[in-house]
Inverse folding.
């Protein structure tokens, strides 16, 4: 079996990031002998990776990490070789260095991919989003992209962007969260709806959230549903708790104090609908065949949601403000929307697996 290395570099307090890393790692172990660079990552990540007994850990087996000075052992060795190199999905960009640390980090990153290429190793971008804000970043990334054998990015607009700057080895892969679809529990009679938001640090945008949440809570309480406020990124706790505080004395409304963990994904199985401005809250609702209500704006952290929903072919349009009429329209069309969601899930799940399998043909 060919050997591959996987560099974990992501946000370690984010359940969504944990899921897409685990999904990709688990899928890759079907095809290669995978060595995960787990240096300096959270115990929660390591515990989840260890659930797969095919996962090997890089430092334990080879005595080095790509994320500390022991990297020199690899850079200078003629014997340590891998056929493939992967890194965590997530934003990939090329920004102008703002200080000495940025310059060092950029140099090391460049050397890693340059050396692996020179050793005959194929590097891949999988499940990421390429962000290029100006000519400097575009030129820099075009040059940097020569180290990658293929770009598998999670929106069709991102494929178009890469091809427009001359990177032809680009193809669409659904968000890797869809790999969970055939592994989760779903129930038919759902009694709850879910609410989870990130703070946009903008009073006007946050007021849209407050008013939309009020309409959402009032609507579903009248339908006899229980309303659950929750969060799956630690830094969302304060803001989501603040949203909940307006309803803390209302019967049928609750708040989950603990941040959702990987074991808590089953929480989604009881949600008929989920409203959020965080992508992987929405996608976890989506793969549980819930009706998802995406709230977006021009903020870069939420605007990416529109690209994902367009790419998967959902007829649900992300919105900047929720109205009662929209909820009534969703209800009237609920059966069709849920069938559409199920069909999309099946197609995206299959496409994820197919794209990854094609790497090894």
């Amino acid at each position: 079996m060919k050997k591959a290395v996987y560099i974990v570099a992501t946000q370690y307090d984010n359940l969504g990031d944990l899921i897409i890393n685990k999904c990709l790692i688990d899928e890759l172990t079907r095809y290669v002998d995978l060595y995960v660079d787990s240096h300096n990552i959270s115990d929660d990540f390591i515990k989840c990776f260890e659930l797969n007994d095919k996962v090997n850990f890089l430092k334990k087996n080879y005595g080095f990490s790509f994320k500390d000075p022991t990297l020199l052992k690899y850079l200078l060795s003629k014997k340590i070789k891998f056929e493939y190199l992967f890194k965590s999905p997530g934003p990939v960009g090329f920004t102008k260095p703002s200080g000495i640390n940025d310059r060092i980090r950029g140099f090391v990153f460049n050397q890693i991919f340059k050396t692996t290429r020179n050793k005959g190793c194929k590097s891949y971008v999988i499940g990421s989003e390429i962000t290029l804000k100006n000519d400097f970043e575009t030129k820099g990334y075009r040059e940097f992209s020569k180290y990658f054998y293929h770009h598998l990015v999670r929106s069709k607009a991102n494929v178009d962007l890469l091809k427009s700057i001359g990177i032809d080895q680009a193809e669409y892969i659904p968000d890797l969260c869809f790999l969970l679809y055939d592994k989760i529990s779903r129930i038919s009679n759902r009694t709850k709806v879910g609410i989870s938001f990130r703070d946009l640090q903008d009073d006007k945008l946050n007021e849209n959230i407050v008013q939309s949440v009020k309409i959402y809570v009032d609507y579903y309480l009248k339908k006899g549903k229980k309303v659950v406020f929750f969060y799956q990124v630690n830094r969302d706790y304060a803001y989501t708790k603040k949203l909940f505080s307006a309803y803390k004395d209302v019967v049928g409304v609750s708040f989950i104090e603990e941040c959702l963990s990987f074991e808590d994904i089953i929480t989604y199985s009881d949600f008929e609908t989920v409203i959020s401005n965080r992508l992987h809250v929405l996608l976890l609702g989506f793969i549980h065949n819930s009706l998802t209500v995406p709230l977006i704006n021009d903020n870069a952290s939420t605007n990416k949601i529109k690209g994902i929903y367009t790419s998967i072919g959902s007829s649900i349009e992300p919105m900047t403000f929720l109205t009662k009429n929209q909820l009534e329209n969703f209800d009237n069309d609920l059966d069709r929307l849920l069938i559409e969601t199920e069909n999309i899930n099946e197609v995206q799940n299959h496409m994820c697996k197919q794209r990854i399998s094609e790497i090894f043909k």
User: Anything to note?
Assistant: The first helix runs from residue 15 to 28.
